[in-house]
Structures are given as C-alpha cells and as structure tokens.
Amino acid sequence: MTNPQGPPNDPSQWARPGDQGPLARPPASSEPSTRRLRPGEPGGHAQEPLNLPTQPAQQAEAQTEHLTASHAQTRRPGRATAHSASPDPTVRPAEPEKEPGPVKAKRRTRRDPLTVFLVLIIVFSLVIAGLIGGELYTRHVANSKVAQAVACVVKDQATASFGVAPLLLWQVATQHFTNITVETAGNQIRDAKGMKIKITIQDVRIKKTADSVGTIGALDATITWSSEGIKESVQNAIPILGAFVTSTVVTHPADGTIELKGLLNNITAKPVVAGKGLELQIVNFNTLGFSLPKETVQSTLDEFTSDLTKNYPLGIHADSVQVTSTGVVSHFSTRNASIPTGIQNPCFGHI
C-alpha cells in the first residue's frame, strides 16, 4: 500500500523527527488530522493548515493513516507473541513452587497429642482383645484335652478348668501348668454306679520323652459313693441273686459300716483301704431260709471293689475312707507321677 501523492515539498509522514521507525505510532494530537508538521520545527508543533487537496484526497489520506496504524499495532503483538512462543531450548522450564501450607497442616495433625493418644488407645485395645481371644481359645483346647483324658479313664463325662493365674498362654509357652481342676458328672467311675470324683492337679510339667509325656507334681482326688450307687453296684456285681442280696443300703457313720439289706439276708460291711484301693470287709452276715457261705460273698465283694477302685493310672492310690450319712467318701492321691504316652495308655494320647 502506498501513500497518496502530496505536494512536492511536503515531507512524508514516515520521516517525522519524533518517530522511532516505520512501525511507530503517530503522535497523538488534539488538533485536526488535516494539519501537518514541518520537518524543521522542534517538538513537532503543528503548522498552520495548508491548502489541502480535494475531499476525495483527504479521505484517502485518512484511510491510509488509519490502515498504517492498524497494521503497526497488529504486527507488534504478533512479534511479541512469536518471540514469547519460541522458548530457548537450552533453558529448562521452572518447576512450580510447592505450597508448604498443607504439609505443615498434616504434620501438625500427626503430631497432635490427642490424635496420638487415640491411636495408642486403639492399638492397646486391639492387643488386649487379641490376648483375650487367644487366652479363651487356648483354655478351651486345654480343658477339652484334660477332660477327654479323665473321661477315658473313669468312663464318665468330665469337665476341666485351669487356674486363673498365671495366664494359660504363659503356661503353654513355658510348658508348666500350676493348677488344674477336673470334675466328673457323677454317673459312675468305671462300673461303680453313683460314684463321683473331683481331682486337683498341681505342678504339671510337659517334657516329652520316649516313655513319658511329662510329670505331675501332685494329684489329689476326692471320690464320693452314694448309698443308692452302692446298692446298684452290688446288685450288678452278684448275678441273679444281686437283687435278693441287696435291696436297701443303710450307712452307719458312728461305727463306719454300711448295711446291705435284702429279702433273705442282712450283710454288714466296713469300707477299708486295702492295697491301692478300697474293700468292703464283711462284719456280720445273716441269712434267712438258705445258707450262703460268708467267704463266697466276701470274695465276690473283693473282686467287685478291686475292679472299681484299684489299678488307676499315674500311680493313684487310696489314702483314706469315711462313711457318711449319704454314702462313702474316700481320698486318693499321687505324687511326682510320670504321665504315660499314648502307646502306654491310649487315654493320654491327646495330651
């Protein structure tokens, strides 16, 4: 695009003293755009208006100036944009700065005493719950094993329980059990009906060897035999004549005897400790209508009581016996007994 032709002596607007180049903006002026500056005047003061061309020439000049200014304005940002859009490849872009505010907040939250205290309480509660659960499970397993062994020996249902202190977990870890209590249902011991046993076991140390599982420091057992149980046991021990020989059992605590009354006889016997078990020694024997040798009856009673109260494992033996108003109470015990293996006695195979 070219500037319109002006007077021959009129310098072009591109060569004004105040301009910085062909792309510089024309200076703003409050006077009309038709006035021009002379090249020699300082400060670019306006000159008196000259005789301008006709109206079409003035419009063309104004349009040219407008387009030139617009072109300069559009080229300048373009250059700046191009210059800013082409970064130096050797310069790495700066990483965005991290905001330390949230990190400090998190650190403060972690260091909050209340939060730390709550975390410790939760951890402590979980540990306690784990210990309680482990203790209960260990007690259940241990009680079942001991009760199963006793039930196998006495032929009756049994329940076992370990002492409260120390914790059973600690006893299992050390293989040293301080106190165990076992009690049967009272239905029978072997073939002795109505006989019940309560056992207290102390100082059990598990140390498996070829012929032993461990040792028992002390075992004490209290056996009660009810009068009704004695009657039923004697009836079962004497075939056919049992019901006739013993229909009623009466205890006499004063002289320590029991009386077996039947339809045709009356037997008075005294429970005593014999060997490792108990025996019923006949003190008085009366028969009505038929003769039955006393020795025969005594032999039958001895055989019966021997099977019931002797040959217990662990070296358990009878210590004492006492007649009460409800039956007979005896005490059995053993000390420093060796626990047999499952091969020696199948009842101890689960220990």
From TrEMBL:
- Protein species of origin: Mycobacterium decipiens
Query: What are the TM regions of this chain, as residue ranges?
Result: 114-134
Protein name, per record: DUF2993 domain-containing protein
Region of interest (Disordered), ranges: 1-108
UniProt keywords, alphabetically: Membrane, Transmembrane, Transmembrane helix
Q: Where is the composition biased (Low complexity)?
A: 53-62
Keyword Membrane attributed: yes
Output compositional bias ranges, type Pro residues: 1-10
